[in-house]
Specification:
576 residues; alpha+beta; six-stranded mixed sheet; four-stranded antiparallel sheet; binds ligand 9MR
């Protein structure tokens, strides 16, 4: 490995002038071992963004260096912060702030005898590949078609789950017959399909498309539709939307899910052949679908007006069903043990559906039905699909200022900024500069859902602290965290290798399917009975294990990839 006996040390002095010092010291050799105690964004930073590494070390070390890994020269030397005792992380840390390094390049942080950090880049569009990768991850979740080598590389697999003739479970309200319900994405590490957790992520994906329609164009994802003249992003989202449309009953209501009775074993999709059923029918699924399909109308209007209109029609029909059936909850029938996605409070679903349908139709009936009391702006970790829908409705209102009453716009704009201000304070004060202090199942999605609120505030009022809050949330997910792991499979130097994902467990390929976000630390340790083994009393932020049985910390899921994609897409547009 390269190293230089003589090198040039560039020191930034207090009067902001650069000196180039010649030194006789030598850089420690590169051994190929990187320090796990230096935690940073393993992908990298935009030139102008704040850049911090967290150094976990009981030793008294005062300084750190930033080393250009191509030339092996020190480009910056700085002082570490005083020791901080972080409770959520359960660590004593010092902070290395190297925001002053602005030049594009590949670097490592060097801290005394700890050695080198993983290498990372500083450049424009530094997150572009990760962004595309998080969308390509959805392609790998496609059901009902083979994944060909040409698109899927070594993760190619056979056709499975055609879902062309699925019987009804009695909970659906029907006792006989079948429907065809093909396509869509597998929800997570399991092979089932759930309407609540199809429409919620679609809502987040559509938001990005409405705000930044050129974020992904044709031919950028290498999916089967690449080259058809339409955005690969829209093509991928349509694969899921098409499935959601099949789950609408003739009367407008939505079946809740298409699943087996029990989760399948850890086998490849084509080996998972248990009978699947159409299960349940209820208000949550129906209203979430109404909202998402109304959004789909706007998103697809310019590329496929006929499809867009069919989505809007379906949305209105669903809404009308919900008017007749305003509070039909869903709980798993006794003989069904797959994901429940249950919810007993329908207020945020009503809010989201009214918002999207009003914005898409301008029909004031929807606006007049809006319950503004639902506009609680406080972000709560763990709410996820049971409460975040209200934010999706509010975000869509903010995107359509011209269509909504000025007073409504003003109150949402104020509320979102206040919420973002609170999250910014948390990102300043909390361990690893991220905005949550309670780590539930899927906590990485909470970090990112909070970042989405700061992103909307930034679009309303481009204060640097909002952008910084979003950036720091992404730094956390990509490696600046108490596990030192970049949680998106395949992106970063230390990433999850043993996700709870049936294909990844069964395919005999060492690397897991890429572009999938691990759920993240879960202080409730809800999978110990399933075989996950944690260290004794882990801190909340260290309640994560890279073990396949850890479905409560290391599964992947659509509604976790969705805010990941949104935040990556937002940063790529706003940080360059
Ligand atoms: O993300 C869900 C989490 O909040 C719940 O606590 C958990 C148990 O109900 O279910 C999670 O969702 C899973 C779903 O039920 C089935 N597919 C995998 C999902 C992610 O683990």
């Amino acid at each position: 490995m390269l190293f230089f006996n003589r090198f040039f040390l560039v020191v930034l002095c207090s009067c902001s002038m650069f000196f180039v010092l010649s030194c006789e010291e030598s850089l420690p050799p590169m051994t190929g071992q990187f320090s796990e105690q230096i935690r940073l964004n393993q992908i990298g930073y935009y030139p102008g963004s704040e850049k911090k590494a967290v150094i976990v070390s009981p030793k008294k070390i005062d300084t750190f260096h930033v080393v250009d890994s191509t030339t092996m020269t020190v480009v910056f030397t700085g002082n570490l912060s005083p020791v901080q005792n972080w409770k959520l992380a359960g660590e004593e840390v010092r902070i290395a702030d190297f925001s002053q390094v602005l030049d594009e390049g590949t670097y490592m942080v060097l801290v005394g005898e700890l050695g080198y950090s993983y290498p990372f880049e500083i450049k424009k569009n530094v997150l572009r590949e990760v962004f595309l990768g998080s969308v390509k991850g959805l392609y790998y979740q496609r059901t009902g078609m083979p994944l060909e080598k040409e698109h899927a590389g070594k993760w190619h697999r056979q056709m499975a789950h055609p879902d062309d003739s699925i019987p009804f479970h009695p909970s659906s309200g029907k006792t006989e017959g079948y429907i065809a319900s093909p396509g869509g994405w597998y929800d997570a590490g399991d092979y089932n399909k759930y309407i609540v957790n199809a429409t919620f992520p679609l809502g987040q994906f559509y938001l990005l498309q409405e705000q930044y329609p050129d974020a992904i164009l044709d031919n950028q994802l290498n999916i089967p539709e690449s080259g058809n003249g339409k955005s690969d992003y829209l093509d991928e989202l349509k694969y899921e939307m098409d499935w959601a449309l099949t789950m609408q009953d003739a009367d407008g209501g939505l079946f809740h899910k298409l699943t087996t009775k029990n989760f399948e074993g850890m086998v490849m999709p084509n080996k998972a052949i248990s009978q699947r059923y159409i299960v349940g029918k209820g208000t949550t699924a129906t209203l979430d679908f109404a909202a998402c399909a109304a959004q789909a109308y706007r998103v697809f209007k310019s590329v496929d007006p006929v499809y867009a209109s069919s989505c809007l029609l379906a949305a209105k029909k669903a809404y009308d069903w919900a008017l007749e059936n305003p509070a039909v909850g869903f709980v798993n029938p006794e003989d069904v043990h797959t994901g429940q996605y249950g919810d007993t409070n329908f207020d945020d679903e009503w809010f989201w559906a009214n918002a999207e349908l009003f914005v898409s139709t301008k029909d004031t009936t929807y606006l007049n039905s809006l319950n503004t009391k639902t506009m609680n702006f406080e972000f709560k970790a763990g709410e996820s699909w049971t409460g975040y829908m209200r934010f999706l409705g509010m975000f869509s209102f903010l995107n359509h200022k011209e269509s909504i009453p000025a007073a409504l716009y003003a109150s949402i704009a104020k509320g979102i900024q206040k919420s973002a201000d609170d999250l910014v304070v948390k990102s300043t004060e909390l361990d690893y500069f991220q905005p949550i202090d309670d780590f539930h199942w899927g906590s990485n999605s909470d970090v990112l859902n909070a970042a989405m609120i700061m992103a909307q505030a930034y679009r309303l009022n481009p204060k640097p602290e909002y952008l910084k809050g979003v950036q720091q949330a992404m730094d956390y997910v990509l490696g600046a965290n108490a596990m030192g792991v970049s949680y998106l499979t395949g992106f970063g130097d230390k990433t999850p290798m043993n996700i709870h994902h049936r294909q990844s467990a069964a395919d005999t390929i060492e690397q897991p399917v890429p572009g999938l976000l691990s759920g993240g630390p879960n202080s409730r340790l809800q999978d110990v009975s399933g075989g996950a083994v944690y260290p004794e009393n882990p801190s909340p932020m260290q309640s994560w294990v890279d073990q396949e049985p850890s479905y409560a910390s290391n599964e992947i899921c659509l509604n976790w990839n969705a805010p990941m994609t949104y935040v990556l897409g937002f940063l790529e547009q706003e940080s360059n």
